[in-house]
What we know:
mainly alpha
Amino acid sequence: MKKLFKFEFFSVCRILVPVWCGTLLLSLLIGGLGILSAQLPALGESLPYLIIYTFAAILFIFAALASIIASVVLGIQRFYKLLGDQGYLMFSLPMPAWKHISARLLCACLTTTLAVAVFAVCGAVLSFSSIQSGSLITVANFQFLAFDDLADLLWNGYALLIWLLYLATAYLFLYLCMAIGAQWPQHRLAASILTYFFLIFVLQVLMMIAVIFVAVGAYSTVQNGDIALISGALTSEQTAAAHGLLGGLLTVPVLLFGAADAILWVTTHYFITRKLNLA
């Protein structure tokens, strides 16, 4: 498992690392040009400076988008190749199918998270340069990175957990679509795309039905006077109940994403181990 993950990670990073480095260098270049124009206003108004700054800004936008898009595309492509000619080699190795899925899933989630982190660092560089140059425009607010107390650390840990669970759900859903599409090896790509749109349609219908039931239940609860949030101060019992309700609401996304990941994982593993039809 460790060797397989290292093989996947280095195969992907061989493409992504140059893109990340280029994005960071472009952000440093733009930040340096911004500070330089603040120190030398005459230079900032010159035509060569404006051309260089505009060209660097356009390149940065494309590089930032490419760094995130490329990580997602590679995360999908690595699993898609597993269902083609590469599968004859990979599945001949003495390791179970769940390790192949795990290695690709972990690599996809990690590289996507790193791509977002690189984008955040670039935003911090641009934000710092704009402050140094006296600009009123800041690119991003990175106060969420500051851990002032334990509560901030817990909130950031909770946000990271939700992000990783969401990434796993998104990639596993795509993996499932590709595993189902692989049942038609001659038209694997078209079948995977059709499966994706069909499953999305079914999920949207189910979500709409669930939202209607939740809305009707919430309206009935408010009408019955079970929840009083408008008038008067809350008693200690009501405050404790509100904190318990908040804690319960925070666990809902974790449970939903966790359940979705488990269902998608089991279904994908079933198609890989029982219904695999390599191209």
